[in-house]
Automatic annotation (TrEMBL):
A family per Pfam: RPE65
Name of this chain's protein: Carotenoid oxygenase family protein
Cofactor(s) needed: Fe(2+)
Keyword field: Iron, Metal-binding, Oxidoreductase
PANTHER family: BETA-CAROTENE DIOXYGENASE, CAROTENOID 9,10(9',10')-CLEAVAGE DIOXYGENASE 1
InterPro entries: Carotenoid_Oase (IPR004294)
Organism: Chloracidobacterium validum
Upper taxonomic lineage: Bacteria, Pseudomonadati, Acidobacteriota, Terriglobia, Terriglobales
Similarity section: Belongs to the carotenoid oxygenase family.
Length: 489
């Protein structure tokens, strides 16, 4: 008798549930969370700042892609005595204020959102709206809301009042922009970030900032070709950039038919370039690896002329078909994001790429004391199924030493964004265990039709959350955030 045919794996997610997690939060709230399930650890004291698209439609018109939604910063204040206060405020960008008054879209979005009126109303309008919706950077006197297509917006860290567009003391002159994925030096705590002026030849500017977010150094390099780069990796001496093999056909954008990002073309026949930019300035070094597309890096380190970079890579650019609304996307047909390890021999130029996991993952991080150093543990969001592409529904801690992972899934009714790793406080640097800490994970809970914040012990993910803080509304899936520990009283 022939063996029975293998049965297809049961899908543990529902499209309607997933899409509901993109419901706009139109109200600005401020309240103490009174629905807490489990017990909060008393040493978790400080503030979690999160940024992401909060408003996804205006005047009855939806954004084409959630990345075009207006930035909304959410705050969780942990007091350490079991109480947590939640607040959210919209970043009052010039475009947000103007469109709120008009009740409709007035500017085009990078990812395809158009002004009402068809292509004729959008043709040759090349000024995209700064939506300040991707990440935050904290200083005691100001909080920056970041969006890589423009300058940051400064907010009051306590009230979240918008203070205005910030050129960082003149460092961001003219049309200079400031990326939305800063890195932090493990030794000094200084922030390192970049800006790109793309074109036939692209200019990359690397910035170093102090604890007050004042620019203390900047260096520039010319990179041949068009550069679309969201993130970079940091070593003690270098900033590592992956230049994805994409080009752009601007005509559909100029003539009002598509958004700028819809005009990107992935070129699988070209290599992905790896650029090493000396943080102190100097000659750029460039290497090549097999074609792939990278949004986010886990970490990098350099030892004995061998550069190792762990990254989340796609085999091709994960784009939607032009004109496709994100609510109708067939995510199973889009390239999955997977964990890869890239190694580069700086002496010989030889490169190697190795897939470490089949499971779709995104939004990676490591212990801040391991930035630029070999790491054992990497934390990220994951799809529930071990193979194929699907919405993110859980958290994962990957052990690079053993090649195994700890996981926890909120499937079939929970959907997640970026997990934020918070190191255990009060640990001497020479005694740091790099998975000793907490993971803070936003979850959309479909049966409740609300969002929650789950708090995990990062060393025991499989045991489930220590606590879940249930909110009163849906907070749309966010992008990036930062935890700021409380100062000692």
């Amino acid at each position: 008798m022939a063996a029975p045919a293998p049965q297809p794996e049961t899908r543990r997610w529902n499209r309607d549930d997933w899409v509901r997690g993109y419901t706009s939060l139109t109200e600005e709230r401020d309240y103490w969370i009174d629905d807490i399930e489990g017990t909060l650890p008393p040493d978790l004291r400080g503030t979690l700042y999160r940024n992401g698209p909060g408003l996804l439609e205006r005047g009855g018109q939806s954004v084409q892609h959630p990345f075009d939604g207006d930035g909304m910063v959410c705050v969780f204040d942990f007091t350490g005595d079991g109480r947590v206060r939640f607040r959210n405020r919209y970043v009052q960008t010039k475009g947000f204020v103007a469109e709120s008054k008009a009740g409709r879209f007035l500017q085009r979005g990078v990812f395809g959102t158009q002004k009402p009126g068809g292509w004729l109303a959008n043709a040759f309008d090349l000024q995209a709206k700064n939506i300040a919706n991707t990440n935050v950077a904290y200083a005691p006197k100001k909080l920056l809301a970041l969006w890589e297509g423009g300058k940051p917006y400064a907010l009051d860290p306590q009230t979240l009042e918008t203070l205005g567009e910030d050129d960082l003391g003149g460092a961001l002159a003219g049309s200079a922009n400031f990326a939305a994925h800063p890195r932090y030096d493990r030794r000094t705590g200084q922030m390192v970030n970049f800006g790109i002026q793309p074109g036939l030849s692209s200019t990359v500017t690397l910035y170093t900032l102090d604890a007050d977010l004042e620019v203390t150094a900047q260096h520039r390099w010319e990179v041949p070709g068009f550069a679309f780069i969201h993130d970079f990796a940091l070593t003690d001496d270098y900033a590592v950039f992956f230049q994805n093999p994409v080009t752009v056909n601007p005509l559909p954008y100029w003539f009002g038919f598509r958004g700028a990002a819809e005009c990107l073309v992935f070129q699988a026949s070209r290599p992905t370039k790896i650029h090493l930019l000396p943080r102190a300035g100097g000659r750029m070094r460039t290497y090549e690896t097999d074609a792939c597309f990278v949004f986010h890096h886990v970490n990098a380190h350099l030892a004995d002329d061998i550069l190792t970079v762990d990254s989340i890579a796609y085999e091709t650019f994960p784009s939607l078909e032009p004109g496709t609304m994100y609510r109708q996307v067939e995510i199973e047909k889009i390239a999955a994001s997977q964990l890869f390890r890239f190694t580069v021999n700086l002496a010989t130029g030889e490169t190697k790429r190795e897939r470490l996991m089949e499971r779709a993952v995104e939004f990676p991080s490591v212990h801040p004391k391991r930035v630029g150093q070999p790491h054992r543990w990497a934390f990220m969001a994951m799809a529930d199924a071990p193979t194929g592409n699907a919405p993110l529904q859980g958290v994962l801690a990957y052990d690079t030493k053993t090649g195994t992972a700890q996981t926890y899934s909120f499937a079939p009714k929970g959907y997640v964004g970026e997990p934020v790793f918070v190191p255990k406080p009060g640990v001497a640097e020479d005694q740091v265990e790099e998975n000793a800490g907490y993971l803070l994970q936003m979850v959309f809970d479909a049966p409740r039709a609300t969002s929650s914040l789950a708090v995990f012990d990062a060393q025991n993910l499989a045991n489930g959350p220590l606590a879940r803080l249930h909110l009163r509304d849906i907070v749309p899936y966010g992008l990036h955030g930062q935890f700021v520990p409380a100062r000692n009283p």
